[in-house]
Design a protein that fits this description.
six-stranded mixed beta sheet; globular; 17 helices; Protein-Tyrosine Phosphatase, Chain A; Rossmann fold; UDP-N-acetylmuramoyl-L-alanine:D-glutamate ligase; nine-stranded mixed beta sheet; alpha/beta
């Protein structure tokens, strides 16, 4: 079991939760169980299922506003990661000295489970699910939480796990001070959410490296030695945990690397060496070699048997909305990659597919730089079909490289246009590179609408 870090927050009194989504409601239930006087405030409308859960547990709440006087009377505030730190109510709380923390940090106080934490601009959901799959398949008592699945706080309140695999976004990491990851995994860093970081990559890099904050020498830091931004970040942020790099271009030991025979090799001191041909992996594509290396290093560090690891890495099924095969219609494959909300994720998707691709992309631009897509668009993309209200930056960046680039009026319209542009043997790929909030509730809604439109062809 992991040692519980020292936290310096009130352990009783009034606790306010800002935001009544998955993490907020889970936090409220855990806080109530720990004896806090709990109150939940959401500036928007609370979803019916969460409202019902609050009512059933007798937790007070408000929706459609933040009552400042009530919030300011709190001893501790736990805020949703979706609420920026610079909003007035959060600034006011900090000005009067009331601690404002994240759900993950709050819940971590109340478990002695080993915390395996995964972040990165791309691949973190897949790697988190794969890591959980590896540990669960090996018989470990492991929970899955963070930016995926049921809230960490709710599971701490109602379950008793020995391990947690946590997917952590930069927004979650921003709100953590004393949290300690026993195993920290940093997959990669590419420009994303720069609108939240003053459009400065270095601020985003600092946010990602918060995952190693408070680690101890006996902890592990797993990172990609091929990612230049991560490697450069190591010059500023100095891990004290044991470092395990992974690479597909060079031999690293200890760590994970790829041989000239296309075998993954995982070497950890005092453990049997693990090898596996990449053609045996259930997840194909270069980016998934990296994801398997990261998950494999975590699994090996927990002393999993090689045979169990190989079986799990060969049987894993990817998460919905991440390169999810939908259907083959008239010889055209339709793939849902709605979770690709940044340019680098689209690059990975295109890199893993054969030509020709009809690419459906667009939405709420987060300061994207589409330049990295130009070569792949030129060599692999037959046409681009744009979704979303304003795609002027996609046109400006890719118009010279795309054979065809057109707008659409809805997801259904986009799929119909793509089906006419595609030829037998092509792939229609939804990989937006953008947030979804102009036309859709979230990326899941966008992906579901894509799948429905495909099935109606």
């Amino acid at each position: 079991m992991a040692a519980i870090p020292t936290y310096h927050y009130p352990q009783q009194g009034k606790l306010t939760v800002l935001g009544a989504g998955e993490s907020g409601v889970g936090t409220a239930i855990l806080a109530q169980k720990k004896g806090f006087d709990v109150w939940v405030s959401d500036s928007g409308k609370i979803a019916e299922r969460y409202k019902k859960e609050l009512q059933e547990t007798g937790i007070r709440y408000e929706e459609g506003k933040h009552s400042e006087q009530e919030i300011i009377s709190s001893d501790l505030v736990v805020k949703s990661p979706g609420i920026p730190q610079n909003v007035p109510i959060v600034q006011r709380l900090k000005a009067v000295g009331i601690p404002v923390i994240a759900e993950i940090e709050f819940a971590a106080q109340y478990t002695d489970a080993r915390l395996i934490c995964i972040t990165g601009s791309n691949g973190k959901s897949t790697t988190t699910m794969l890591t959980w799959h590896l540990l669960n398949h090996a018989g470990l008592n492991v929970g899955l939480a963070g930016n995926i699945g049921r809230s960490f706080a709710l599971q701490v309140a109602r379950e008793q796990y020995d391990y947690y695999v946590l997917e952590l976004s930069s927004f979650m990491l921003d709100d953590m001070e004393h949290f300690r990851a026993n195993v920290a995994v940093l997959l990669n860093i590419t420009p994303d959410h720069l609108d939240r970081y003053d459009y400065k990559l270095e601020n985003y890099v600092d946010s990602k490296f918060r995952i190693i904050r408070n680690q101890q020498p006996e902890d592990l830091f797993i990172y990609c030695a091929d990612d230049p931004v991560t490697v450069q970040g190591l010059e500023k942020h100095h891990p004290i945990a044991k470092m395990l790099p992974f690479s597909i271009v060079k031999h690293v030991e200890p760590g994970a690397y790829l041989t000239s025979n296309n075998e993954i090799v995982i070497n950890i001191p005092h453990q049997d060496t693990f090898t596996m041909d990449i053609n045996e992996l259930s997840l194909q594509g270069k980016h998934n070699v990296y994801n398997n290396m990261a998950s494999g290093l975590v699994a090996k560090a927990q002393e999993l048997r090689n045979a169990t690891m190989k079986e799990s890495m060969g049987s894993f099924k990817n998460i919905p909305h991440r390169l999810e095969f939908v259907a083959c219609i008239a010889g055209v494959n339709y793939i849902n990659d709605s979770k690709a909300t940044n340019v680098n994720a689209v690059w990975y998707a295109l890199e893993s597919l054969a030509p020709q691709v009809v690419l459906i992309m667009g939405g709420v631009d987060k300061g994207n730089d589409y330049e990295m897509l130009r070569d792949l668009v030129r060599t692999k993309v037959r046409a681009i079909v744009c979704i979303g209200k304003d795609n002027s930056r996609i046109y400006d960046s890719l118009e010279e490289d795309a054979q065809i680039i057109v707008n659409s009026s809805s997801m259904r319209d986009a799929v119909e246009i793509a089906s006419h542009l595609a030829q037998k043997g092509d792939t229609v790929l939804l990989s937006p590179a953008c947030a979804s909030f102009d036309w859709f509730k979230n990326f899941e809604d966008r992906g579901e609408q894509f799948k429905e439109a495909v099935m109606d062809l």
